[in-house]
Here is the input.
Amino acid sequence: MTTVNPEQFDAEQLIDLPTLARWLGVKERHIRRLVSERRIPFHKWGHHLRFDPVDVREWLATHRIDPTRRPLRGV
Here is the structure.
């Protein structure tokens, strides 16, 4: 699997599903599931999916778990 550097994208440039999957190190099917569940920000034109790298970075940041915090009870 080829490594993709998110810094190589312009702020205005959208990336396609295969590129995002390579960037995140997951299969395309996983990205499609995130899209179908509306759990990741995306743009859709007809059947084409595109992703804004800035939006994806922000989405990833909101899902970051701080290792220094103690877990909540029951989690």
Remarks:
- The chain is about 35% helix and 10% strand.
